[in-house]
Amino acid sequence: MKAINLLCGRRPNIALLFGCFLLTLQIVLIVFAPLLAPYSPVDADPLNVLKAPSWSHWFGTDVSGMDILSRIIYATRINLLISVTAVAGAFVVGVPVGLFIGFYKNAVSTLVMRVFDFIQSFPVFVLGMALVSVMGQEIWNVAIVLAVLFVPMFARLIRAEVLSLRDRPFISAARCSGATNGTIMFRHILPNAITPAIVQISISIGMAILLTAGLSFVGAGVRMPTPEWGLMVANGAQQMILGVWWAALFPGLAIVVSVLTFAILGDALKRLAEPASRSGN
Fold first, then answer.
1. For the CA atoms of the chain, what is the radius of gyration?
2. How far is Cα 210 from Cα 218, in angstroms, rounded to an integer?
3. Are 19 and 261 within 8 A, CB to CB?
4. What phi and psi values does residue 273 have, to the nearest 5 degrees?
5. What is the CATH number of domain 59-278?
6. CA 188, 189, 192: angle at the middle one, nearest 5?
7. pTM score, two decimals?
8. What are the tens digits of pLDDT across the range 253-278?
9. Pure H helices in 38-106
10. Domain boundaries, the chain
């Protein structure tokens, strides 16, 4: 109980526990998808087109006769694979880049910042559509594009922290003791600057899920018959005028739950990173 109070304050954080429960549920779907999905996620069944939710098809079927529940379960793998891979790649690239451009003030740092300014001057969704169109509508291409879009975010976070730390007294003391620039950056500055980037990971995963679904919704993401939430919503939306509400509703709810999960966890991490929160005030 003492450990829980230290992490969550004077009493357990219900929102954090709920977020962890939702994350665990998604992990279970990812790991045990072949066991949990009642049907194949990619095999069409012309005899069961647009069937309403029933005991045989809990979430109904889509315009191709594919079971929506099975596709949602497998789509958890696709959407989280793309999102987590993209954010992990952006973190791995953005953190050291931000560390170097914050520590060294030279022409290279200025050039890198101008490149980031150029990338972030475009609307994220529009730039993502353009890059995916150029690279091709494959799962890994979508992940690479999202990683490119997120690198400036992590780099700027680290750079801002480095700029506030590089002239602190403990850094001057490290220089006086003979520490090299590499030692100062990776041993003294990075551990003190990494927290905002770690907090940003969870928030960025939620953003990546939305971008992945959005790109697929407009036809610039993954292609049929790959199970993906945004693609399922796009296909189902065309049938809503006919009263087929289930084809778009359930994939949409899956997006909401997944994004909500990482939003809750991101907020919890942010609170834990604050000194007042850690002290229980």
1. 22
2. 12
3. yes
4. -80, -15
5. 1.10.3720.10
6. 95
7. 0.86
8. 999 999 999 988 888 877 776 654 44
9. 68-103
10. 59-278
